[in-house]
Amino acid sequence: MWDHVHNYPLKQPSFQKKLSFAGSVERFGHLSNWSYSTPLDIFSESNYENSNPRVSFKGWKTDPELLFALSEGGFGLVWGTN
């Protein structure tokens, strides 16, 4: 969030052992087969059927919604289309 200029009111992040990924799951299909103990939140237009309790699909978010969700804590990667 440090390189995305904004003036949205965000939460004070808390330390959480989770990863967030925003981008195309089709380009990184292995994410839906996540086998690590760290929980993974995926923000993507894709709606995969998922039975993995460590993977949570959060759907597509607007910029303000995504920044607000990511500001809750954890570590993340936002991957653009190019």
Automatic annotation (TrEMBL):
InterPro entries: Gtf3_C
Keywords for the protein's UniProt record, in alphabetical order: Transferase
Kinase keyword on record: no
Gene Ontology molecular function terms on file: transferase activity
Domain Glucosyltransferase 3-like C-terminal, chain residue ranges per copy: 19-82
Pfam families: Gtf3_C
Protein name as catalogued: Beta-1,6-galactofuranosyltransferase
